[in-house]
């Protein structure tokens, strides 16, 4: 079975590397050339374009920035001239409505589709311990399962097309709330004379600590936020959650905070850089 991978950003690159390590034949494509070099050195084939990749591969994954990127890749390349019976799997975080739209587009080309966005950042993606939330037909999920087992520690088939994306926008709402709450807590303690390293130790050792707080602790201590999950993407995801019907008391304040942090120039830093924005805002 030949696997295709489109989108070799922070997540796509390491996820594709795991597919290759698991022994699958892999073709890769990224809009900007050069990002495929390491994978090609490790044995992947660099596809000349989207059409060629879709023609050659049985299952094609996309891991792209946002709804527009995914739509343009499907509409302007991936589906042009694709053979019947293939399976396309979109792992990007997009609106549930976009996943339903893509499924319809695939159906009109006699191609199967799964929305399979992931929870977990670059480290779990590298370790193959993502959580994969899947929407689509059961038989397509069963076909993809061996690959999901390579990419993640858990995959869940949640329902029809769009169900994976619905779960994903929900979990990222929690991520946004927790990230802002952690930033506010550390700053509040600091302003009352408590060292941030000590405060983070208290958080992480106690009931309020979690994997996210542990993962972000080193960057808060250093004050450096190279993007594992770019802040601009949590703004995108909170907007997707609102479009999908999120109407909760914390939704607007959290979106306002991350939007303002993005406007202050932090969009390409990690979402935890919100602590810098809140600190400067005082
Ligand atoms: P990233 O590093 O910014 O990579 C984005 C990818 O999308 C790149 O390959 C980029 O190509 C491509 N792209 C953007 N616009 C495009 C367009 N119009 N046409 C074709 N390709 C386009 O993003 P990432 O962190 O890997 O995230 C990818 C997706 O996973 C996003 O939907 C994100 O919300 C989601 N996600 C991310 C994380 C995380 O921790 N990073 C965790 C869970 C889910 P170029 O290289 O040419 O720009």
TrEMBL record:
SUPFAM superfamilies: 6-phosphogluconate dehydrogenase C-terminal domain-like (SSF48179), NAD(P)-binding Rossmann-fold domains (SSF51735). The keyword NAD applies. The active site is at 168. Residues 2-157 form the 6-phosphogluconate dehydrogenase NADP-binding domain. It holds the Pfam family NAD_binding_2. InterPro entries: 6-PGluconate_DH-like_C_sf, 6PGD_dom2, 6PGDH_NADP-bd, HIBADH-like_NADP-bd, HIBADH-related, HIBADH-related_NP60_sf, NAD(P)-bd_dom_sf. One of its GO terms (molecular function) is NAD binding. The keyword Zinc does not apply. Residues 162-278 form the 3-hydroxyisobutyrate dehydrogenase-like NAD-binding domain. Keywords: NAD, Oxidoreductase. PANTHER family: CYTOKINE-LIKE NUCLEAR FACTOR N-PAC, OXIDOREDUCTASE GLYR1-RELATED. This is 6-phosphogluconate dehydrogenase.
